[in-house]
Amino acid sequence: MTIDAGTKIVGLIGHPILHSFSPFIHNTAFEIAGLNYKYVAFDVLSENLKDALRGIVALGIKGVNVTIPHKEAVIEILDDVSPEARIVGAVNTIVNENGILIGHNTDVYGFTESLKKYKNLISNTPVFIFGAGGSARAVIYSLITNFQPERIVIANRNISRAEGLARYFSQVLGYKDFEVKEFFLPEIAGDIKSSRLIINTTPIGMYPNVNDLPIQSDEILHEGQIVYDLVYNPPTTKFLKFARRNGAEVISGIEMLILQASKSFELWTAKEMPITEVKKLLLRKLRAKKEK
Ligand code: NAP
């Protein structure tokens, strides 16, 4: 699709932005849906963040995704932020509503939607989370507000970061059933084994370190468990292959990636993203890249 005077521009602000899949996802979706929109990636340094937001308004850009390192910092600069994004403490989507910039967090939607079909299986059961970074915040918010976890165990290298998350969500959401552990296998094996849902929110196993795994001992993962890896490149990580071999059901980070994008798409265009087609083309692109 060519750009003409009527083309509506949306995009991404972050640094670095070169490896983002979002331009492919959205531009493919616009093309399939026949919408005259174009998604552009803008490399924005932290010192230019305020000016970049002014630029969005000045240039009439319809909205942007926000990625590392601006997801938290942007909150104080926006005109308004959704209650969800404020609690999570991160904005990944901005909508320009006639010059008023509103922040949203569509990672929460993406994670929640991708787990919906497992709701009966996971409600009132224990959940185990590797990692306590930005994505863990969206995951914990979604779990507490949608899935009634019996307990949430957070294992992180930096234990004080995990303690901070547990304390924060206890305060803001009144959820008290947290346990915090150091990311040290002998200590956490029992907690993983007794959890119904296990989620990797760390970048372990992400391209190019595709042979890394958060755990590799057998007899910890088993049938009846659901293992979710937020890493989406590769779409099926070594951790997911290992979990599947041990009898667990697995969910790829691609699910959350596409669904969070579909929510941003909807916020900007008021149209539904053609999710199935876009996902198929994204997976094809990723496979082609691997074969090169
Ligand atoms: P982040 O804020 O930087 O947090 C990273 C977390 O991983 C921290 O808890 C960190 O522990 C831990 N960690 C990093 N390297 C580790 C290692 N080698 N061993 C053990 N722990 C390690 O990152 P994020 O934004 O949460 O993103 C994490 C991953 O999720 C990335 O791969 C990202 O692509 C993916 N993600 C996917 C989606 C999706 O839509 N599928 C959405 C968001 C993020 P410390 O606190 O000890 O440093």
Describe it.
The protein is an alpha/beta fold. It has 2 domains: 8-104 and 260-291, Rossmann fold, CATH 3.40.50.10860; 109-251, 3-Layer(aba) Sandwich (Rossmann fold), CATH 3.40.50.720. The protein is 42% helix and 20% strand. It has 11 helices and 12 strands. The strands form 2 sheets. It has a 6-stranded mixed β-sheet, sandwiched between helices. Strands 9-8-7-10-11-12 form a 6-stranded parallel β-sheet, with helices on both faces. Strand 8, helix 7 and strand 9 (178-182) form a beta-alpha-beta unit. Helix 1 crosses helix 11 and helix 4 (106-115) packs across helix 10. The two termini are 27 Å apart. The model has no long low-confidence stretch (mean pLDDT 96). The chain binds NADP nicotinamide-adenine-dinucleotide phosphate.
Mind summarizing the main beta sheet?
A: 6 strands, mixed
For the secondary structure, the number of strands is: 12
Total helical segments: 11
Percentage of residues in strands: 15-25%
Q: How far apart lie the N and C ends?
A: 27 Å
Structural class: alpha/beta
Helix content percent band: 40-55%
> The CATH topology of the largest domain is what?
Rossmann fold
Mean pLDDT: 96
CATH superfamily of the largest domain: NAD(P)-binding Rossmann-like Domain
Provide the spatial order of strands within the biggest beta sheet.
2-1-3-5-6-4
Number of domains: 2
- Bound small molecules, which ones? NADP nicotinamide-adenine-dinucleotide phosphate
Overall shape: globular
Poorly predicted regions are none
Task: Evaluate the radius of gyration.
Answer: 19 Å
Gross CATH architecture of the largest domain: 3-Layer(aba) Sandwich
Along the chain, the helix and strand elements come as: EHEHEEHEEHHEHEHEHEEHEHH
State the name of the first-level CATH class of the largest domain: Alpha Beta
